[in-house]
Known about the structure:
By secondary structure, chain A is α/β, with parallel strands linked by helices. Chain A is 32% helix and 20% strand. Chain A has 2 domains: 5-31 and 283-391, Lyase, Ornithine Decarboxylase, Chain A, domain 1 (Beta Barrel), CATH 2.40.37; 33-268, Alanine racemase (TIM Barrel).
Amino acid sequence: MRPSTKTRLSESLRAIVGSGVEAIDTPALVVDLDAVMRNLGRMAEFAKKHEMRWRPHAKMHKSSALAKLQMQAGAVGVCVQKTAEAEAMVAGGVNNVYITNEVVAPGKLARVAALAHLVAAENGQLAIAVDSIEGVTRLAQAMNEARPHAPAPAVIDVFVELDVGQGRCGIPPGRQAVGLVHEIRRHPALRFAGLQAYHGKAQHLRSPQARRDAIAAAVQDTKFTRSLIEKEGVPVDLVTGAGTGSMVCEAASGLYGELQAGSFMFMDADYAANERDPAQPHFEHALFVKSQVISSGLQHAVCDAGHKSHAIDSGLPRVHSFSGEPTLDYFNGGDEHGILRPAAGAGVAVPRIDDVVWLIPGHCDPTVNLHDFLVGVTGGLEQGEVSRIIRVDARGALT
Amino acid sequence: MRPSTKTRLSESLRAIVGSGVEAIDTPALVVDLDAVMRNLGRMAEFAKKHEMRWRPHAKMHKSSALAKLQMQAGAVGVCVQKTAEAEAMVAGGVNNVYITNEVVAPGKLARVAALAHLVAAENGQLAIAVDSIEGVTRLAQAMNEARPHAPAPAVIDVFVELDVGQGRCGIPPGRQAVGLVHEIRRHPALRFAGLQAYHGKAQHLRSPQARRDAIAAAVQDTKFTRSLIEKEGVPVDLVTGAGTGSMVCEAASGLYGELQAGSFMFMDADYAANERDPAQPHFEHALFVKSQVISSGLQHAVCDAGHKSHAIDSGLPRVHSFSGEPTLDYFNGGDEHGILRPAAGAGVAVPRIDDVVWLIPGHCDPTVNLHDFLVGVTGGLEQGEVSRIIRVDARGALT
């Protein structure tokens, strides 16, 4: 007498492959797969032109299926922020994963070490960032403890993270890195793989010049640190970093060898608000929340998508306009609702019950993390059809 | 060679019943079950004193297990906002559910009707809100179409939603309600159950007087609308509404018969910032994100909980202090990190790697929606132990 698991599953799916976009139940997170493929092609071309590796950040899409799509397009692997995200990627068949973050809890490091041995047995590679001696020694201990249980001995790649302006994790540029590098090199299960110099705060500086200035400072600090390490006779094989906002600057630096940008594939309202650097490939919006009007009054209408359908840490979503002209403004309606009003001067009426709006989320990463599935559409949002349901298999992978 | 589903499950669980709080992996959403039971007791006592029904909003906790706990404490059932939430509640054994929101899509109404018939067969009751003639006629059609497949004929309770100041869904108070009521009464499968008069915007007005003024206006509008309906010879059995912020006002009104407040059970930083009405029971913080420091520098430390661990639509989390004195301030570190600095005048050091912080989320509802499980603790956050893992079975139930 109870709705079965299947009921909940069909609810979660919300769409059937082969049906038209009009049949997608709302709210749903919809991906324009044509735009995704164009964005991936532009990134691959950009990286090739600059002779750089690209390792997109999977914290954004949280999907092993999309990670594999990126690797088919030329990515060397993916980045993640969390041990549990790495586990989800590996479980999904991705065996080149870099945890661009510090892991210090022994329980988590045991999982990291198990994963490192697992991917090594499949000719894959795990990497991780560190910013403390304690972090290095615990990682080495975990790698050694995992070895007797592992199918094959493994070496984990270790990047020293520099704080190049983000003010978050990472050691300050300079001498401190040398001690960390020596500590890494003391342990046979660890390989010093290079420096991570990601400047998160530079990504959304609105003017290209401000982003160039921020990355120029990061480059200077990182080069200085690299020179100190190399003076000790230790090569620095790779500097890795960059996001969608600043990637043209890192690419032009001659220092970075790997781009971690991830948001370019979906884009969002916050990145779209950046003034575009002429050197930047044109990345299209590919991520939308499909929503429907459930209530309509004289002054406003209410749609069925609120904070539980899209993250608002970078602002409320924008209403997508197919004509390019403004139509509706979206206002905060709480967790489950959005308030819609005609945009100033748009000359459109208040939407009616059943009307569909396509929302462009403020920030792609935490928006994707709210959904179990992405509904992949080809042929456009107006006439297209559902061609693929993509599981967000690292959704909620927090630890 | 792949990590099994069990690996992911154990990651999601993060805690084992019987272990101490120190063993809970981070970040984790932890519920102080002792505080929960005290909060439920205070709500039950308050409702009894005012001779009111209480039907807490399950959009907050999204857990059928907690819904059943609330009903054991005296709640008549629960509220939800979404069809999919209602399905999750019913699947979890809760058969008295009120969808306090408009549902207009025929596909969803078919699910609503199926659910109405399902709970009726178990002596339960489904209810729903409407604010349009179109919504009523579609609901009636769905109920009729579901009937031949249903184990027993059912009648769904229908509340007419008034917009009493929220500016979201609902019709304006006044004559429009009469037409809607007549339309509801035309359909044998629908029962006009009363009026919903929920004032969302009143919940976080900081001063008790401002909240009293807002609810006084809502009461006046609702009484006027009720009198228009009763003049037609139609009884208005129930007025339902109220949230944790304003509930003392609705309770004192003599108009409302049912309280929908939900957040009182967990509380959050936003509700704690309200100046407390003397008539309000003292509800304790019961919801925390346990987080651990993963990086530590001279000026700040970084913990492992960011926007993907807690919603920030109502502001960043506060760091819980066991002494009551301020210790640390939490700053935005993005999706996966929090920045911690000693609070002004606190005289504490920058936290070190491994240090644990307990965060009080800004807003409980969308925070719970980010997690698959709540870790239930008894005996307090310092010395207690994990006594129950609670599945958030309506997490992500968006449609």
